[in-house]
Amino acid sequence: MAYPMQLGFQDATSPIMEELLHFHDHTLMIVFLISSLVLYVISLMLTTKLTHTSTMDAQEVETIWTILPAIILILIALPSLRILYMMDEINNPSLTVKAMGHQWYWSYEYTDYEDLSFDSYMIPTSELKPGELRLLEVDNRVVLPMEMTIRMLVSSEDVLHSWAVPSLGLKTDAIPGRLNQTTLMSTRPGLYYGQ
């Protein structure tokens, strides 16, 4: 769960979120190295005299600054594509839950069971108990098993919504007339707030 003044991501609860955190660190390190190199080159340009005039005609330098960015982009693209395909993969889900977005609330339906559905309304600020979080607490929470593959079907009744649980690495758009699908699996028990 997030806490006040938090600078980083929430703790990962699913394998997908762990992969996203590793990819974030990987990409951030590449950006840091590129920024350091550019700062070093700029400081050299400002502090030294240019005495080697034939550098401007060097084919090797042009080849390097053409190929090096392509290699860097490949180093970023390959892990990104792997995670993209992992997020889209559905492996024989054990449970299917349908989430329907409404103007001020969500409706949930456990489709594997007959007549098991409920509405989830946000608790007004005036009715919050001590320790409950404003704009995150609801009257009916979705209860899901851990270490099981769960398929979420997300749609909307009226306007565009977004069904998101940051600690699981999920964010799926709820669009009227369209049924979007995502998969989740929690590796540890807990209370995870959506937004």
TrEMBL record:
| Localization, UniProt | Mitochondrion inner membrane
GO MF term (any one): copper ion binding
For this record, the Gene Ontology CC terms, alphabetical, are: mitochondrial inner membrane
Q: How does it sit in the membrane?
A: Multi-pass membrane protein
Pfam families noted in UniProt: COX2 (PF00116), COX2_TM (PF02790)
Q: Which Gene Ontology biological process is one annotated for this entry? A: ATP synthesis coupled electron transport
By what name is this protein known?
Cytochrome c oxidase subunit 2
